[in-house]
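Materials and Methods. Structural model of Lysine exporter protein (LYSE/YGGA). The 213-residue sequence of Lysine exporter protein (LYSE/YGGA) from Catenulispora acidiphila was retrieved and submitted for structure prediction as follows.
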Amino acid sequence: MGCMDGSVLHALVSFALVAGLVTVIPGLDTAVVLRSALVLGRGQAFGAAFGVTFGALVWGAAAATGVSVLLTASHAAYTGLRVVGALYLLWMGMGMVRAAWRGELSQGSEQVPDTGLVRAFLRGAGTNLLNPKVGAFYIAVFPQFMPVHVSHLAMGLGLAGVHDLEAMVWFSVLILGAHRARAWFAKRRVKRALDAVTGTVLVGFGVELALRG
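The predicted structure was written out as tokens:
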């Protein structure tokens, strides 16, 4: 049953407990942000993190207005998004693996700062927006935290905002912690190894997403 008599504050706090547990579970978003912190630097890592949280806000609005219901109800729509997301992950992961094999620096690590930040943001946003599991999570849990007489869109954005706030705190801990070790990770050989590992993980996520029915 939903929060029929619960206050907005109670709903937000209750959702924060659930979303907090989901946030700290290692996943695709964490891999992208952590790799950015270790290889590309703190600025681009925060750019990727903000991209991820922007994607979550979009999913939150979509879930609250029923777009995610369509994805859940329509097998064709869900499959289409799943295939696109899988291809994106495969493309990004194989690019990292290929760059590591050739001894190159992947994903624009030698770009000027503004270009690098924009690309980092788009990389984070694309990773989140093309992952239908985010929409499926929101559409599954949001009804439990929707008080009556409250705009569904506003409440959906509020719930996604809570999730984003927790994610940014978690990402900040990872980024600042990784920054201390970046001198070692800045070595070209270590960068290549990290790209190879991260790329392989992304390819694995892409294959898993493509094969999941």
